[in-house]
Amino acid sequence: MEYLALCFFLLCLLPIILLCYIRWHYGELEGLGFPVIQPHWIFGSNLNAHNEVQHYVDLKRSEKYGQIYGVYHGREPLVFISDPEILRIIQIRDFAYFQNHRQFFHQHEVWNELLDFIDDEKWSLVRSQLTPAFTLSKVKIMSKTISDLCAEYTESLAKDMVGQNETEMIFKRYTPPLLMEIIAKCFCGITIPNARDPENQIVKDITFALETDSLRFDWTSTLVTILPFLTKLFPMYNTEVLGNIKSFITGILKRRGISEDKAHLQNILSKMFLSGNENNDYNRLRITKSTAIAQAFGVFNGSYEIVRVLPLVLFHISNDEEIQKKLQYEVDKISAETVDHEAVSHMPYLEACITETFRLSPTFIRLDRRCTKDWEHNGIRIKKGMSVMIPLWPLHRNSKNYPDPEQFNPDRFLPGNKEKLDRFCLGTFGHGPRNCIAKSLAIEMLKFMVVHIIKKFKIMRRNDTRLCYVKGNHISSQYIPLKLNLVKRN
């Protein structure tokens, strides 16, 4: 009888404990100097997040509450900031207060050990070791390989159009395998056999792992925000696929010896992978084989954003005949054989089109920084442990910096104009020490892809061309695959 009474007591106590756990941080945002969106009694401020396009939510909230406001993401208090001056202070001047990213529980070591998700001294050491592999001089060395592969893939598109003048551009057949080949050759020193084969298993696995439409954004994603430990029951990622990728990368790092070029990424990661217990700093900071594997995976992960950006660049170009003609004119000044780093570096209109695409259609919805010690500025306070969210859509539509912000206008970023803009109103790659390590590489790859496509094809809209965003995704601005046609140019 006493046993049953105890069980009954514990059963009654459990909901109270869970409720206290869920609401533990409620009330922490109030009184910090900015408006707070009223939370649901257990689900936080985003009860219907899985049924809403998240960047549209950010735009509406910014219009209503201003450039600084608080949100309870489930049980987690977040501070949303789109004021460029405060973002400059957070990312540059007061970096010591915001040196880490927001904490996530990915439930897989490949994701948990990515550069973006490690902290403090461990992040600093890993970043310093990776940096030499992503310098502009390294990008220049890789540029010929990147350009040749882009030319090869674009030529295959033309060959597939035998007897046709116009065809639909199937981006998923073009961009993912091209990116896999570029990363494999430039950073791993290997060639992926038959990368263009739709049944190539490693290309399928990496694409599946990185494609956000494979992630779970339903009612369970809302549930996980209030009970994070449930990620074990509702994982966002396919562990079997990540296991296959881990085995693939492990094989590369084991098989390859340390090359003469100490700044080659494969050399850096092989050394990290093989050093193990021999390195005291690695032991102290828990830098393991999984850390090395994660950084290799991170190169694929970071570069994969191009899969989402390239269709958007071509979509915006296709919407305006004059813009496309200007770009064609700039691209046609050089022959296909001379498309190299030097050539694309002197294409201001191409760069302006890419930058304007990043502004108008950022692929990430928000960036973040985690406060590591109490911070205050002009009456605004952020407590240690809270995360600052940088909503890119409202930031990139700052009408003071970008007149007519909904208009695709590459001229904003041409020499003579871009110098007048506040650079902190463009947050695509972040700013300060925690910015994107591979920014130069990403832009270089995009330039080559766009140049080789524009040289051979005109981009045409179809009757069913629509840019429609998917609900629920709070990581990237996921959209239904764009439908565009390619028309052979004379």
Summary of the model, kept short:
By secondary structure, the chain is α+β, with helices and mostly antiparallel strands.
Tally of strands: 9
Percent helix, as a range, is: 40-55%
User: What pattern of helices and strands is seen along the backbone?
Assistant: HHEEHHHHEHHHHHHHHHHHEEEEHHEE
The major beta sheet can be summarized as:
4 strands, mixed
Spatial extent as radius of gyration: 24 Å
pLDDT averaged residue by residue:
88
**Numbering strands along the chain, what is their spatial order in the largest sheet?**
1-2-7-4
Stretches where pLDDT is under 50 for at least 5 consecutive residues are: none
Structural class: alpha+beta
The geometry reads as globular
Percent of residues in beta strands? Answer: 5-15%
Could you give the distance between the termini? 90 Å
Counted by DSSP, the helix tally is 19
Question: Keywords for this structure?
Answer:
490 residues, alpha+beta
Describe the structure.
There is one protein chain. The protein is of the alpha+beta class. Helix content is 48%, strand content 8%. Strands 1-2-7-4 form a four-stranded mixed β-sheet. A three-stranded antiparallel β-sheet has the order 3-9-8. β1 and β2 form a beta hairpin.
